[in-house]
Amino acid sequence: MYLNIFILSKLNLLIFFSINFVYWFSGNIIIVFFAILLSQFISSKSFSFEGNQKIETFYDSKIILRDIFQNHQYTFYCSCSYEHKKPIFKACGYKPYKNFKRANRIEWEHVVPASRFGKKFETWKNGNLRCIKNGKKFKGRKCARKINKKFRLMEADLYNLQPTIGEINQQRQNFKMSIIPGEKRNFGKCDFEVQNKFVEPSPNIRGDIARTYFYMADTYSNYIKLTKSELSLFSKWNNVDPVDEWECKKSKLIVNSQKNLNKFIVQGCKASD
Predict the structure, then answer these.
(1) 205-216 pLDDT, tens digit each
(2) pTM for this model (two decimals)
């Protein structure tokens, strides 16, 4: 559906047979050679294109991601380096806009906002009899997280999480991605704009964002639907900003922990080989 990408997964094949017929005519005798080639034997590890089935809490995801990013400590939207959960502004030219406290910490942001899929859960909208604390009912993310395993798995999906300056995460909220003409920059040299409940990210990560949205919508299709305008925009972003070395490497590290593939990244990595 998305980008009409079709991938033949070799990982689920046990044996592939290639049969070659060689006909050699000698007088009235036809000699037929059957060459049967056993091409590939798959290891016991099987990776699927299904969603996250391994990591059930957002907390566990953050621990795993710190490991994955240990040799690539740069924030997603502003490319600021960071150490010990704190961004380093000097090299990237970031300037705090409104919230200095959150600007000085690293947060793990959901590229596809949790509210985008969370609102599909009844517990998010209306709560649950088990969602009571100190005699008070609660709903939203906390209730969905408590009651729904599927929500917890989606919330914890590593492909949808990126290290982000806390203030940027706060400003982004759950706004949709877009192009903002004549945008005003409020975060120093960071190429990230927010206007009228839309967000425009820098060109060098637009493909990453597109492939994340495609993955989430394809993998969790009962909970996430992309609009026609999003499909059009993300298709363009995917084409003009193809996968790079880090995206491929990060994807492999995620597979090691989460045991599933993002086929939109896999396809791009194969094309770049």
Answers:
(1) 999 999 999 999
(2) 0.83
Q: Name the pairing type of β-strands 198-200 and 193-195.
A: antiparallel
Give residues with Cβ within 8 angstroms of 46, minimum separation 6: 11, 12
Q: Which helix (H) or strand (E) holds 198?
A: strand 198-200
> Is residue 191 assigned to a domain?
yes
- Rounded Cα distance, 263 and 138, in Å: 37
Q: Are 217 and 225 in contact (CB under 8 A)?
A: yes
pLDDT of residue 48: 65
Residue 129 in domain = no
Q: How, if at all, do strands 136-137 and 193-195 pair?
A: unpaired
Contacting residues for 26 by C-beta, under 8 A, at least 6 apart: none
Cβ contacts of 254 within 8 Å, gap of 6 or more: 68, 158, 159, 262
Domain for residue 119, yes or no?
Answer: no
> Is residue 267, in this structure, part of any structural domain at all?
yes
The answer to whether 109 and 212 have CB atoms below 8 angstroms apart is no
Tokens of 1: 């559906």
User: In which domain, by residue range, is 89 found?
Assistant: 48-112+148-272
Structural domain total, the chain: 1
